[in-house]
Amino acid sequence: MGHKTSPIGFRVGVSEPWRSRWFTRNKRDMGKFIIEDYRIRKLVRRSEKCRDAGVSRVEIERMGDLVRVVLVAARPGALVGKRGVRAGQLEEELTKLTKQRIEVVVRNIENVMLDAQLVGDSIAAELERRVPHKRLMHKYAENIMNEGAKGVKLMVKGRLGGAEIARDEHIVVGKVPLTTLTAEISFRLHVYMSCTLPTHCFTGVNTHSRDR
């Protein structure tokens, strides 16, 4: 039997940073903060502002009564808005949700094609327009490798093309060392209707990561 694990969770603390960075000595606050983090991420994912900006990652930091929400986006200008209006509106929504002081920080993604989240979103959008999945996988795999990736693995699983029986199609270009802890792998499991899109992108080995 297969024992599958998330490539991100597998590398946390070694070559991947924690997505939530805070500490509390009060055991009662532990569960409260975990649920709050989940609700913050859920609100951000469902927000049209964040969807238009192409938010790839949501990181949360807590310092006293301040909650800092770091949004890593492909189009930060669409998220900030004119004179920071849209970011201010998002801060108000999050403050109303958590009843705490919120600070929204927006960061830019250097290369969109090396981010599995955004690649998965793009593939799902084109599948919605009925583009053949094989052509999509070959096109995106080629584009990702041209941007300097060491390897890429794309998979589409489900009722492809509206077929009655589910199947899976995949393409692997280069190498994707999933068991190497120092390997920097961008991963995203995207679910679109009756299809699942696991996306892996290997960009190199992190030589500065500490030994486990």
In short:
This protein has helices at 7-11, 27-46, 48-53, 76-80, 85-98, 116-128, 133-146; strands at residues 20-21, 55-63, 66-73, 101-108, 151-158, 167-174, 183-192, 195-205. It is an alpha/beta fold. It has two domains: 7-108, K homology (KH) domain (GMP Synthetase, Chain A, domain 3); 112-205, Ribosomal protein S3 C-terminal domain.
Structural account:
With 212 residues, the chain is α/β, with parallel strands linked by helices. The chain folds into two domains: 7-108, 2-Layer Sandwich (GMP Synthetase, Chain A, domain 3), CATH 3.30.300; 112-205, Ribosomal protein S3, C-terminal domain (Ribosomal protein S3 C-terminal domain). It has seven helices and eight strands; from the N terminus they run αβααββααβααββββ. The strands form two sheets. A four-stranded mixed sheet has the order 1-2-3-4. The protein has a four-stranded antiparallel sheet with strand order 6-5-8-7, covered by helices on one side. A hairpin with a 2-residue loop joins β2 and β3 (66-73). α2 (27-46) packs antiparallel against α5 (85-98) and α6 packs antiparallel against α7. The model has no long low-confidence stretch (mean pLDDT 86).
Q: Which CATH-level-2 architecture of the largest domain?
A: 2-Layer Sandwich
Strand order of the largest sheet: 1-2-3-4
Q: CATH superfamily of the largest domain, please?
A: K homology (KH) domain
Work out the count of structural domains.
Answer: 2
